[in-house]
TrEMBL record:
PROSITE patterns: CENP_V_GFA (PS51891). This is CENP-V/GFA domain-containing protein. Belongs to the Gfa family. One of its GO terms (molecular function) is carbon-sulfur lyase activity. Keywords: Lyase, Metal-binding, Zinc. It comes from the Bacteria.
């Protein structure tokens, strides 16, 4: 089985990373909760690419040095934080889920190790994109319970 041959081995915390210019440094002391590729149109624009890569961590395990500014649409529901100097996208946070940060995977030094387990919004996926995610949603998981169940499956991978 292909799924058994693919070993998604993730290094042990702590994890470190930095923005493009290095003015913002991040540190995470916990293992990731979930790794996600999002194909939505917003993420395509945010990432200047075909999809975004997110690694979710518990908020209390995440810290950073440097100055961040709010970017994106500055909606009440979700905040998108960028390096003030190079404007690299660092992380986002949902008002309804303050216990989690959605770190942009590319910020992490070992970004390549955080292979996406879940892909969402495949209905907006560019047709030539192929993400090797184990779980796939045409839109988003619909309930908090569904998300919890995905995190459980991810932690058992
Ligand atoms: Zn920067
Ligand atoms: Zn998205």
């Amino acid at each position: 089985m292909e799924s058994e041959l693919r070993t998604m081995s993730i290094p042990e915390p702590p994890f470190e990373g930095a923005c493009l210019c290095g003015a913002v440094r991040v540190r995470v002391t916990a293992s990731p909760l979930l790794t996600v590729a999002c194909h939505c149109r917003d993420c395509q624009k945010f990432s200047a690419s075909a999809f975004s890569l997110t690694t979710m961590f518990p908020s209390d395990s995440f810290s950073y040095d440097g100055e961040l500014v709010l970017g994106g649409l500055r909606s009440v529901e979700r905040a998108h934080y960028f390096c003030k100097s190079c404007l690299n996208f660092i992380y986002s946070q949902l008002k309804g889920a303050p216990e989690r940060v959605n770190l942009r995977t590319s910020i992490l030094d070992q970004a390549a190790s955080f292979e996406p387990f879940l892909e969402v919004m495949t209905e907006a996926k560019m047709p030539w994109v192929d993400v090797p995610a184990v779980r796939s949603y045409s839109r988003f998981p619909e309930t908090p319970e569904e998300l919890q169940s995905l995190m459980r499956d991810y932690s058992k991978r």
